[in-house]
Design brief:
The chain has a single domain, classed as Spore Coat Polysaccharide Biosynthesis Protein SpsA, Chain A (Alpha-Beta Complex). The chain has six helices and eight strands; from the N terminus they run E-H-E-H-E-H-E-H-E-E-E-H-E-H. The chain has helices spanning 15-23, 43-53, 67-77, 96-107, 137-149, 165-171, and strands at 2-8, 30-37, 57-62, 82-85, 111-113, 116-118, 121-126, 161-164.
């Protein structure tokens, strides 16, 4: 099972589009964990509305502690073998998780990665700054994680990656 974690803070303007893009995935063996990080707008209520209509959704309400804490709370609650993150102002293509999970199921890597689009411009993708392929544990720690987190797109690195839960709990 895939656990999709969405840290939510004052995102009422984009939140419905975000959640709908996750619930409409062609890959359905997932749980969706919405972590409301003390929102002061209607974000918490929107999360609770989705909870009522989709049994795959869990909602966690916490005091405002920041995105990293919200992500960690989601990981603690995750029941899946694989975890991914989506920021509450982002949306994903309908077949994204099916494509990524196909690779995960076949090879069981610690991380599966893909490219991503910016804004509404689907014809312009941003490429990763490391080569496609398989990496051993030391290479992941020394090459992949630093580039994922500090490649100039630090706020979007989670969106396009799946993490094995054991690897994530050990390294996050």
């Amino acid at each position: 099972m895939l656990s999709v974690i969405v840290p939510v803070y004052n995102a009422e303007r984009h939140l419905k589009k975000c959640i709908n893009s996750i619930t409409c995935q062609t890959y359905s063996d997932m749980e969706i964990i919405l972590v409301d990080d003390g929102s002061t707008d209607a974000s918490g209520e929107i999360c609770d509305e989705f909870l009522k209509v989709d049994s795959r959704i869990k909602v966690i309400h916490i005091e405002n502690s920041g995105a990293i804490t919200a992500r960690k709370k989601g990981v603690e609650s995750a029941g899946g073998e694989v975890v991914t993150f989506v920021d509450s102002d982002d949306w994903i293509e309908p077949d994204m998780y099916e494509s990524l999970m196909t690779v995960y199921i076949q090879y069981k890597p610690d991380i599966v990665s893909s490219g991503f689009y910016t804004g509404e411009m689907k014809d312009k993708s941003i490429e990763d700054n490391f080569e496609e392929g398989f990496y051993c544990t030391n290479q992941i720690k020394e090459i992949i994680i630093p580039k994922m987190m500090f490649n100039g797109y630090a706020n979007t690195w989670e969106l396009r990656r799946l993490f094995g839960i054991r690897f994530l709990k050990k390294n996050y």
